[in-house]
Every structure is written in C-alpha cells, then in structure tokens.
Specification:
Number of domains of chain A: 2
Largest interface: A-B, 103 and 103 residues
CATH architecture of the largest domain in chain A: 2-Layer Sandwich
CATH topology of the largest domain in chain A: BirA Bifunctional Protein, domain 2
Strand content of chain A: 25-35%
Oligomer: homodimer
Number of helices of chain A: 12
Distance between the termini of chain A: 40 Å
Chain lengths: 438, 438
C-alpha cells in the first residue's frame, strides 16, 4: 500500500467495531480520530475512535516517533495487523504498520470530547460537531436515527402513506398565535406550526397518512422542553376514532422500547420503577379521564375547576400515581382546538387525548370534527375567522370521512428514551429564543 | 350489525384491493367514496373507491332507492357478501346488505376526480384533496411514499445515520442570495436552502449522514422545474471521494427503478428508449467531463467557452447523445461553490459532478475542501466574508476528515419516475412565486 492512495475510499477496510470479529493476523485499515495516546517505554498505545467504537493500536519505532507529534482529535488512518491484547478494555489490538494523518486538530480545543472534563451545555452546543466525538453524545443521535426508522417502518406496515405537506403557509392556521412570518413574494407567509389542516384534508383520498417533519413556533419562552424548531411525527386516519389512535400510539411506543431494549444501545430505562420490563410492556398505559384527574388531584389536596388546564405540578403528581406513561382523555372542549370532535353524550367534553410522560406532554390527538357546519360553529366560538379557513373548509364539502389523528413531539420522546431533562440535549443544533447559531 | 356502531374502526374489514382474494360468500365491509353509480332496471351498480382500488357493488330494493339519493363522491360504508361478477372490469362484486353515509359531497364539485373531464393544473391544485381521488393522481403520491422508503432503507443499510439539521439559520450560508429572511426574536433569521454546512460539520464525528427534508429558495422565477419549497435528499460521507458518491447515487437510482418495476405500480419507463430495462440497469451511467461536453457540443455546432455554464438547450442535446441519465464531471471551479475541492492536477477544474436527466439536474455533488486555509481562500475569491462563516470554519480545526457528498432534488426525481414535465404535479401543495394556498 502506498500512502498517496490513502485519500481513496478503498483505504478503510473496516469500522472499529468490526475488528474484534476478525482472525488474529488479519491485515486491516481503520480511519477515525485520536482519542488518546500513551507512551510507555518503547511502546505507544493510541486509541483510535470512529462512530462505531474504539480501537487500541500499538506503535513501535518510527511510527511511535511520528505518533508523538500528532495532536489528539486529529483525523488519521492506520494500517496494521490484528493481534491479541493484554488490555482489559479491548478484545484485540492492532499492531500498526503505517499511520497517515488526514487533518490535524488544533492544540487547544473548546471542549474535551473524551468527556473527562465536563463542559456546560451552551459550550457543547457551540462546538456541536466536536461534542459528538464523545460516544455518550453520539449515542443519542444513533438512537434518534434508529427510532425514526422504527416509527416509519411501523406506519408503512400499517398502510399509512408518507406525505410532505408545506412548511410555508399562506394563512395563520389553528388560531395563529406564535407564528414566524415573513415576506413571501410580496404576500405574507408563515412558517407552519403543524401539518394539522393538510393532513386532515388528505384523508379525503389517501385514507391514512403520516409525516415526520420540522415545525416552527415563535413562542417567547425559555424552558427545558420547548424549542422554536422541533420535529413532529404526525398521523391522520380516516374511519378511526381517538381510541384507535391511542392504540396505535401505545403499540408504537412499546415497539420502540422493545426494539431499543433488544438492540446494542444499552438503554437505561430506569423510569420503569416498580415493574419488570416485560410487565411494563404487557401492561396497558392507563387512560384517565380529565374528570378523574380532577378527582385524583382533589384527594391530593389540589382543587382544579372543570375547564381549567392542568399545571405542570398537577401533571407531575398524576405521573407519580400512574407510573409515568399515561393518557389523559376526554378533555373539556374549551381546552381543545376547533377541529376536535365534541363528546356524543356531553358536548362540554371532547374526544381527545394527551399521552403524558409525567409532566411532559408527548402526544396530543383526538377524533376530528368532520361536519362542516359544526366546524364553522367551533371556529366562531373560538373567535376565529371562517374566511381565513375557506381553503380548508372546502374539502369538508367533498365527502369527508370521519377521521382521527395525533401529533407526537419527537424530540420530547427522545428526552424520555435517553433519560435527559433538557430537550436541547437530543437536538443537533437546537433553536430557541437566544440560540440561532451554529 | 347496527349502523349506530358504524362510526367505529371495527366497521371496515377490508381495503378494496383485498376483496378479490376472499372466498365467494364472505361477509365484508368496505369504506370509501362513490365514484360512479348506474341504475339499470331493478339493479343498481355502485363503484366504491378507496386509496387501494375500486369495488363494484350491486344494490337491490331499499338499498337501491337509498343509493339514488346519495351524491357522488360522498363518503360511505357498505356491508355485504362477495359474489361472482359478469363485469369485465372487476374480478368479484359485493351484493350490498346495508349502505351507510358518513358524509355527503356537494352536488357541484370544482373538478371531476374521475378524470373524465380534465381540469387544468391550477384548478386541480386549488382542490388538491379532491384531485387525489383520481387514482392516476394518488398513484404519484403512493410512488413518492414508496421511493422515500427505498432511499432511507438504502442509506441505513449502508451505515448512513439519519440526521435533522436546522431549517432556521442565523447567517446566510453558501453565498446567501435568494434566502427568505424573517425576524427571529429580534435577530435576523433565514430559511435554509440546503443542509450543506451542517452535514459537512457532522462527518467530523458521525462519519456518514443523510437527511431528507424541506428547503427553501426565494428565487423570483417561474419555471416547470423550480418551486420555492422543495424536498432534498442529502448525503455526506467521511473518507469518500466524488467517484464514490457517484457510485452510491447510481446504485440508488437503479435500485429505485428496479423496485418500482417489480412493484404493482405499473410504471411507464418509456424514457428508456433504445435498450431493454435489464440492459439499461446493467449499463453504467456515462460520466462525461465538462471539457468533453464542450467538445461534443462544438461538433453539434455550439460554441461554449471554458468556464461558461451549460444552457438548457445544450444539456438537452447532451441528454439525447447520452441516453438521458448521465453525469457531467470535473466542472470548472469557478462554476462551483466555495466548499468544492479543486482538481489535483488542474486547479481550474473541480472534483464535482452533476447527475443529469436530459436537461434536468437531479443531483449535484463533489469532494469537499477540508483544508481550512484553502477553504478561506475560496471564500475570499468568491467575495464571501470569512467572518460570516466563523462557526462553520471552526469545525475544520478539529481534525476534519476528507469527505464528499451530494444533494438530490427529490421532487425532480419524482418528475422523472412519473414521466411528468411540471414539478407541481408531484408535490402535494406546491409553493411558487404566485402560489402559497391552499
């Protein structure tokens, strides 16, 4: 092998994690960055890391001399042979034949990506690409990628069609507060905060649809669970009601937990406190009515008037009572958007649900109103202008089937899965009231 | 079965396309809309359509009387039994026991979704949900959903990690013309036109990444191949060069063509003119250098100066010569963005490629410059401010590996696959200089 050919894809033969499956004596080439280097007498030990794991490599002679001059975190390629190791942390090691430097790292780095010296979140986010060299951090995003695939495969298997609805919209839908607005070819454009109206229109013909896409909220508040650009998993289905949607969501969440549990991700599901994992998966998520929640809270000394929203503190208490994952169903209609169907028996209630994880709202959904006249009444009752919904309402004149759906805050689900309390930890480049760079 | 229970998911037992596999005499319930109705003597023939296909149903007595009163396109459910049919268009038919109307369509519809009366594209887009009841139209979006899955599965299988980069950005990247801008919490925000800078930063740690997401261009031009919100398939990979990326793209496109050919989509691949499908799939896409293109065009009587861009008319001629799908490689560096790597032998050329389908640019990609000093020179040469790229350039000081990537215009690929000449046909709710609704 000549090093002038090293800049070709043919150079790397394996990822780090693949090496332990090879025979002793195999010739290999791995690429990555220098995580660590120690020089003990005539031997050098270099830890090369790539996205799949770490490789211990042993350097002698000229290679050792060269390795001493290369800054940590530099991008390198090593060629060599697999040999047994005495190290407790590795199953094999690589005796280095040649070492090639693609690109040197500067000596003073803004954060320590080995994680030995901790940095605060803001510094880490300012140097996100480097932060991701910490395997504890990159793991979050490997899980994220995996979970996205599980979700899409699940919906595809269940006959949902993936759609792409517009993020630029011409009128402020769903009430219209908290939208980013801008000049769109001399008209006023807005950034969509959800695909709600579009996904409802699409069940007219496509029956069951899903979309996973970014949405935008201009809410001027700074909390650990809100960001101004977030990823939402949306579904909408003809002929289903809100209980069907809850069944789908619950099955999906449990599928995700099972798949991750069985994967090599070494998940920490410590939020499952009083049960075995199998028991947790086999128990239904409690479905508690809003009215029952009020009664429960009253017993805990908290007085909620019917029609009032539930505060974080109340939700935390309910979360403790109901083992983290629980649905709150049949909310007062006044707390729900115009497109939610009223209850058949009691029009003060709605066919709605939220899936909570403790105080965190993960999913919101419900049966939709598909009667155009009732929809118009709801718009008027909420003080919204029917005129600005003309385009949407038209589709309810074309034989709109009954339908239901929901939206899952994907970043919040990731917080739960990764046991992290700040949503910014699970988003590569989060956007909030003070952060728009990098 | 009582009809008051019909509004439950348990009502529908099958999709239309599943009925032909059932035994004669099976009891079923299907839901959908009335596509057609004919009354012949004491018999009524109602065609019910759902997203999977059409069902012929036969009505007698009271059911016939009722069916006569229901407007076409209304949303209905029928229950009945499978029986043999004399119809040439159906394999079985349903003898209706009960018919239930979910929602009536108005008598005068804005377009005819059976496709018998053609409507122009603008009218169709204004009534998109109804337009999608035409199976020729919904088929486009079923294919779209299928192709998205093929693409994601391919990248996942090849160790690409799915990422979500921000659509709201704080500085005008890549030169910065044609960006939508807006007020972002008292700062200036822009809508991303590509994930270019983010995906490059991410190879520092995640090695190989892909993203499929919407991007935005404020270009004030109205053509059949430009829209202001489009879906892009982006990849970026450490240690690969532009030939590797071309290999990946070519393999992916051929995989898509093969998968669709073998599916039940009945594709029209008439763009494959002089070859069998198998021959086409087994032949490599030609990779023609920009300089060869100039020579070819000169022979066709067209004079292009080195460094000039190729016009649509020239690209059409090359497309005819090279059988539609072909790569143009090694473009003059002055025609490519600052992040593209110059050629090793000739710095006037670049390690770049475009995948063309005739005059249509489907993919643009190349080997990236990973040397921070050369990157800075390129920025300066292009008249861009190094200061506005500070956040991006920092990551090139942290041991950036050599890397390459590309971006595929997904909507344009859909134009090719569906044999359609206007990009608005393959986008549910297209956005252009004059269209922002519905």
């Amino acid at each position: 092998m000549t090093l002038d050919k090293l800049n070709k894809s043919s150079t790397r033969t394996h990822f780090s994690k693949e090496l332990k499956n090879l025979k002793i004596g195999s010739e290999i080439r791995v690429a990555g960055w220098i995580e660590d280097f120690r020089n003990i007498g005539k031997l050098g030990f270099l830890t090369l890391r790539d996205v799949t794991g770490a490789t211990q490599s042993v350097l002698l002679g000229d290679n050792l001399v060269k390795a001493k001059t290369i800054p940590r975190q530099s991008s390198i390629l090593i060629s060599g042979t697999i040999q047994p190791t005495k190290s407790k942390n590795f199953e094999i090691e690589v005796l280095v034949k040649e070492i090639f430097v693609y690109s040197e790292a500067t000596q003073t780095l803004p954060i320590d990506p080995t994680g030995r010296i901790e940095s605060d979140l803001d510094n880490r986010l300012d140097s996100r690409a480097l932060d991701l060299r910490n395997p504890k951090i990159s793991k979050i995003f490997l899980i994220r990628s995996k979970v996205l695939k599980i979700i899409r495969d699940y919906f595809t298997l269940n006959n949902f069609i993936e759609v792409n609805t517009p993020k630029i919209i011409g009128s402020a839908s769903e009430g219209g507060s908290n939208l980013f607005s801008f000049d769109y070819f001399k008209k006023k454009g807005y950034l969509a905060q959800s695909p709600q109206l579009y996904k409802e229109q699409l069940v007219l013909s496509l029956d069951k649809v899903f979309e996973i896409a970014p949405y935008f909220r201009a809410e001027n508040s700074h909390t650990v669970r809100h960001i101004s650009e977030f990823l939402s998993v949306d579904i909408e289905a003809a002929y289903l009601d809100y209980f069907d949607i809850m069944d789908i969501i619950e099955e999906l969440i449990k599928l995700i937990l099972k798949s991750l549990k069985e994967s090599d991700c070494q998940m920490d599901f410590s939020f499952i406190q009083n049960k075995s994992f199998a028991d947790f998966i086999n128990s239904p998520f409690p479905r508690i009515s809003y009215e029952q929640c009020i009664k429960d809270l009253e017993k805990m000394g908290e007085k909620i008037n019917f029609g009032d929203d539930l505060l974080d503190s109340s939700l935390r208490k309910l979360g403790e009572k109901y083992n983290n994952f629980f649905f709150i169903i049949d909310w007062p209609i006044n707390l729900k958007p115009f497109y939610i169907h009223e209850h058949d028996e009691n029009p003060l209630l709605s066919k709605s649900f939220d899936l909570q994880f403790g105080y965190l709202e993960l999913v919101s959904g419900g049966t939709r109103q598909h009667d155009i006249n009732k929809l118009k009444s709801r718009l008027q009752n909420q003080g919204l202008s029917i005129d600005s919904f003309t385009n949407h309402l038209r589709s309810f004149e074309w034989g709109m089937p009954p339908h239901s759906g929901g939206g899952l805050g994907f970043d919040r689900l990731m917080m739960v899965l990764c046991n992290l309390s700040n949503i910014r930890e699970v988003v590569l480049y989060p956007r909030d009231t003070s952060r728009i760079n990098p």
